[in-house]
Specification:
The complex is a heterodimer of chains A (about 600) and B (about 375). Chain A is built from 13 helices and 32 strands. Chain A is globular. With about 600 residues, chain A is of the alpha+beta class. Chain A folds into 5 domains: about 180 residues, Rossmann fold (3-Layer(aba) Sandwich), CATH 3.40.50.300; about 90 residues, Elongation Factor Tu (Ef-tu), domain 3 (Beta Barrel), CATH 2.40.30.10; about 70 residues, Alpha-Beta Plaits, CATH 3.30.70; about 110 residues, Alpha-Beta Plaits (2-Layer Sandwich), CATH 3.30.70; about 110 residues, Elongation factor 4, C-terminal domain (Alpha-Beta Plaits). Chain B has a 9-stranded mixed sheet, sandwiched between helices. Chain B has a 3-stranded antiparallel sheet with strand order 12-13-14, with no helix packed on it. In chain B, strands 15-17-16 form a 3-stranded antiparallel sheet. In chain B, helix 1 packs parallel to helix 2, helix 2 runs parallel beside helix 3 and helix 6 packs parallel to helix 8. Chain B is globular and about 60 Å long. The chains are: A alpha+beta (about 600), B alpha/beta (about 375). At the A-B interface, helix 12 of A face helix 8, strand 12, helix 11 and helix 15 of B.
Chain lengths: ~600, ~375
């Protein structure tokens, strides 16, 4: 097909979870013929096992599809799939910046739900043409007319003639494509200007190296060009450009303004590709990069240890492999008295952390022990120097600390107004500072708070979901550091401090947290021969105490005749079980105990 | 002469009990003869190996040895005696079910040399006996003891069980009282072990049967120690009590790691520094299966076995014996663990023995694991 911007449509699909986004994407791929039906596994775009299972998209993806419309002309449709979680807000914003339109999928029986709105606001922010699609019209409970009115009233988008579809049954899919062709604006990017390619994703290919997914906003790029990463400051020679097809790459001679595709340049380290950065040509650079770039910094850290010390190497290799595809993941070796050798890992947020943990466990068959997540604290020492601490264990002694600061975020919660009270209560509980509240259309409210990040990572999200029955959407952005009265909370088992259980916490939170952790440890540590005092302490002062009572009964009544093999086996098993536990002083602590501490009430 | 013990497994019973997962088969009268011939052949096969040995104890276990014709037992004892000399004070025990005794049977066994009878009484509560699937009543236990006395047995044991579903302290106390009242020389009190695959395990899994909790079980066990001590029975092993001089010598051989040969199906042996066992199943044994799972014990195995077996006995682990056997002190490398155990009241060192206290015996597994080498 000849290059013609007027025939290009770049769009994404946005939806509340379970409203059928991935299924609709699959049907579109099928209809445009880039995927034969027999090649389809369910939800092609969510290629990671985890993505399919959890129904969330973790990485952005782009697919190019040729489509001959009813007007007889051939169009080039680029579908960009976006991640769907607050941890990846920035990645989503870059993916949206690569589009001109968004297909808004709404379930015909569920109507508008929490995420629908959050997604719409984000799309509006990026000036996208929003095209509503009513899905699941085949369900008996479908009420397309009611939902249409709801969309018109609450979001203010005209639903006149919007496609009514059943992605599952394959009904109305062509209407969606026609609607896109008719209403999503074609890109209008200058071809003759210096190259500006927006990186909206990156990943690693064994043969091509680290690859950038891009949307060209100006100019053109071809094999052999010398490119420059404007924020990353490094240069590479292009080895391949092209478009993505669902089953692989489709190399092209060049990519032009308005198009979506990939650029490969034998880049060894994915860290050289920054999502949001602008690629330009080294010998004819753009005067300035595209707006909106932010360096991605890990917000949350935790220690990840192999449950079996012998798996250390496997864990290192696994992290290295995941890191190839995930520039936001960072890791460094660390050691813990209680847990041995492991890694301090940095993540975008809690979901990112959880995903990495799960992938390590599933894809690499590792048993892990994870320490409590921590943010990065700023410590101003009495000698005037400043240190950043991402592991409570490394906190300098109290007498060397002048004061401490903690990261704070600008948080925004959007929810139906009925939940305002519940949300305010939660934000107060989480040491939030109220900033602003606005009523928006559809009886919804935007609440703005300053929140300490360490409260956000400690069950804020779960609490918000349960207190608003899932109707609130939450978004945050790092604001900076604020001075705070922080203390290190240590856990002592039989008088011995367990480094892997220490956390940094606000003084006002120390008592309840200490109590709660002590209680959880009591549940998680099995009875042993000796009574185990569990203490929570701040700077040597005990603030909470629990006791694991001594084992009551553990004996085999009978040696069966001369058969001592059962008893031998039993003891062998007990010995093995003990070996698998972590030794903290004289106390054997099962791996689960370290995880139990992470769990909220 | 080197002492050795012989164990004969008699894998036949009148009915399978609800908790039993031993090799034991009801309704196999037709195979008794075949089985005993195989048993005798196996015994014969040890002839050469037993040169220089002297039998100090024999034990007929089951199953229910009192179920089969006394002639089989007498013949077995006779064949053993023909094979190797018996010590002058040889102890020959036969296990039995109170529901399977008859005067002539007992007298025949007694005449053949059996001098100790161990009866599976289990409980003196008829309801519990029924729920356990026992074929006898409480009353038959008393009758069985009287029969045994008439047949001339002066060394009797009753096996009792506690920690049974539906058993409370009152029932247990009653069982202890009535066992003591029968004036037997030896009592075993076993806490029920719910074995996988038994009807009992299914009942517990379905919630139909509820096993008493740890505290209740400990209390029953302590009750046994106290009540039996008051009646003159000293506790000499986790589950065994005897009047002075009536400790079961055969069982002590197991706990003290003396040599023993197990004959018949599912029988285990410790012989020549090796452990091995015959196949569990009757069919496999009749088909000629012998001496499986052969394991030569190394120094470390011997140490662990000594630790786990000797600490079952109230006498404890012989420190001088340990030094002789392994060339080092028992305390070596265990200093911290021993100090902690003693301090917490689980164990003590006295008169050259390391022994567990009554409280220590309640958690013997954990104590042993604590003392095992890494």
């Amino acid at each position: 097909m000849q290059y013609d911007q007027s025939r290009i449509r770049n769009f994404c699909i946005i939806a509340h979870i379970d409203h059928g986004k991935s299924t609709l994407a699959d049907r579109i791929l099928e209809l445009t013929g880039v995927m034969k039906q027999r090649e389809m596994t369910d939800q092609v775009l969510d290629s990671m096992e985890l993505e399919r299972e959890r129904g969330i998209t973790i990485k952005s993806k782009a697919v190019r599809m040729p489509y001959t419309a009813r007007d007889g002309k051939e169009y080039e449709l680029n579908l960009i799939d976006t991640p769907g979680h607050v941890d990846f807000t920035y990645e989503v914003s870059r993916a949206l910046a690569a589009c001109e339109g968004a297909v808004l999928v709404v379930d015909a029986s569920q109507g508008i739900e929490a995420q629908t709105l959050a997604n719409v606001y984000m799309a509006v922010e990026h000036d996208l043409e929003i095209r509503p699609v009513i899905n699941k019209i085949d369900l008996p409970s479908a009420q397309p007319e009611v939902v249409k009115t709801e969309i018109e009233d609450e979001i203010g988008i005209d639903c006149e003639g919007c496609p009514l579809v059943s992605a599952k049954q394959g009904i109305g899919i062509e209407d969606v494509l026609e609607d896109i062709v008719a209403h999503v604006p074609a890109p209008d990017d200058p071809l003759d200007a210096p190259l500006q390619a927006l990186i909206f994703d990156s990943y690693y290919d064994n043969y091509r190296g680290a690859i950038s997914s891009v949307r060209l906003k100006a100019g053109r790029v071809k094999v052999g060009d010398r490119i420059r990463m404007m924020a990353g400051k490094c240069e590479f020679e292009v080895t391949e450009v092209g478009a993505y097809l669902p089953l692989g790459y489709s190399p092209r001679e060049e990519l032009c303004a308005g198009e979506v595709g990939y650029i490969a340049a034998s880049i060894k380290d994915i860290a050289d590709i920054h999502v949001g950065d602008t690629i330009t040509l080294a010998d004819n650079p753009a005067p300035e990069p595209l707006p909106g770039y932010k360096p991605v910094l890990p917000m949350v850290y935790c220690g990840i240890y192999p449950a079996d010390g012998a798996d250390y190497e496997t864990l290192r290799d696994a992290l290295e492999k995941l890191r190839l595809n995930d520039a936001a993941l960072s890791y460094e070796p660390e050691t813990s008295v209680a847990l041995g050798y492991g890694f301090r890992c940095g993540f975008l947020g809690l979901l990112h952390m959880e995903i990495i943990q799960q992938r390590l466990e599933r894809e690499f068959d590792l048993d892990l022990v994870t320490t409590a997540p921590s943010v990065v604290y700023k410590v101003i020492k009495t000698d005037g120097t400043t240190v950043f601490i991402d592991n409570p264990t490394n906190l300098p002694p109290v007498q060397e600390i002048d004061w401490m600061e903690e990261p704070c975020v600008d948080a925004q919660v959007i929810a139906p107004q009925d939940y305002v009270g519940a949300i305010m209560e939660l934000c107060q509980d989480k040491r939030g500072t109220f900033k602003d509240m606005n009523y928006i259309d559809g009886g919804r409210v935007v609440l703005k708070y300053d929140l300490p990040l360490n409260e956000v990572i400690y069950d804020f999200f779960d609490q918000l979901k349960s207190r608003t029955r899932g109707y609130a959407s939450f978004d945050y952005e790092l604001k900076g550091y604020v001075r705070s009265d922080l203390v290190k909370l240590d856990m002592l088992l039989n008088g011995e401090q367990c480094d892997a259980l220490s956390i940094i916490v606000h003084r006002d939170r120390a008592y309840p947290r200490g109590r709660s952790i002590a209680e959880k440890l009591k549940e998680a540590i099995p009875r042993q021969l000796f009574e185990i005092p569990i203490q929570a302490a701040i700077g040597g002062k005990v603030i909470a105490r629990e006791t694991v009572k001594a084992l009551r009964k553990d004996v085999l009544a009978k040696c069966y005749g001369g058969d001592i093999s059962r008893k031998k086996k039993l003891l062998e098993k007990q010995k093995e079980g003990k070996k698998r536990m972590r030794q903290v002083g004289t106390v054997a602590v099962p791996s689960e105990a370290f995880m139990a501490v992470l769990k909220m009430d | 002469m080197v002492p050795i013990s012989l164990y004969f497994h008699i894998p036949f019973c009148a009915a399978k009990c609800a908790y039993c997962d031993f090799a034991s088969y009801p309704n196999r009268e037709g195979e008794w003869a075949r089985y005993f011939h195989a048993l005798w052949a196996e015994l014969e096969s040890w002839k050469g190996a037993l040169a220089g040995y002297e039998a100090v104890t024999l034990f007929f276990g089951g199953g229910t040895p009192t179920l089969v014709d006394a002639g089989y037992i007498a013949e077995t004892v006779g064949r053993a005696r023909a094979l190797l000399p018996f010590a002058g004070d040889v102890e020959i025990t036969m296990e039995g079910n109170p529901g399977t005794l008859a005067p002539d049977k007992l007298e025949a066994c007694r005449r053949a040399g059996v001098n100790r009878l161990s009866l599976g009484a289990q409980s003196f509560d008829d309801g519990l006996l029924r729920s356990l699937g026992r074929i006898h009543t409480a009353r038959q236990i008393g009758e069985a003891v009287a029969l045994a006395r008439e047949a001339g047995f002066v060394n009797l044991n009753l096996d009792l069980m506690y920690a049974l579903p539906g058993q409370d302290m009152e029932k247990w106390r009653d069982t202890l009282e009535r066992a003591v009242a029968l004036g037997v020389e030896h009592l075993s009190a076993y806490s029920l072990i719910v074995e996988e695959g038994t009807p009992m395990a299914a009942r517990v899994a379905s919630g139909e049967a509820v096993v008493p909790g740890d505290d209740a079980v400990n209390a029953m066990q302590r009750e046994a120690v106290a009540r039996l001590a008051a009646a003159g029975y000293g506790r000499y092993e986790i589950s065994n009590y005897a009047r002075p001089g009536f400790e079961c010598r055969h069982n002590r051989v197991y706990w003290e790691r003396g040599e023993y040969l197990g004959l018949g199906c599912a029988a285990h042996s410790l012989f020549g520094g090796c452990r091995f066992a015959n196949p569990d199943g009757l069919e496999a044994y009749l088909a000629g299966g012998r001496r499986e799972g052969f394991q030569r014990l190394g120094r470390r195995d011997a140490m662990e076995e000594t630790l786990m077996l000797s600490t079952r006995m109230t006498r404890g682990l012989d420190l001088a014996g340990w030094r002789r056997a392994f060339g080092e002190d028992f305390a070596r490398g265990r200093e911290d663990a021993l100090a902690r155990l003693e301090k917490a009241g689980y164990a003590e060192v006295r008169d050259g023995f390391f022994r567990l206290t009554a409280r220590g015996l309640e958690v013997q597994n954990a104590v042993v694991v604590e003392l095992m080498e890494e």
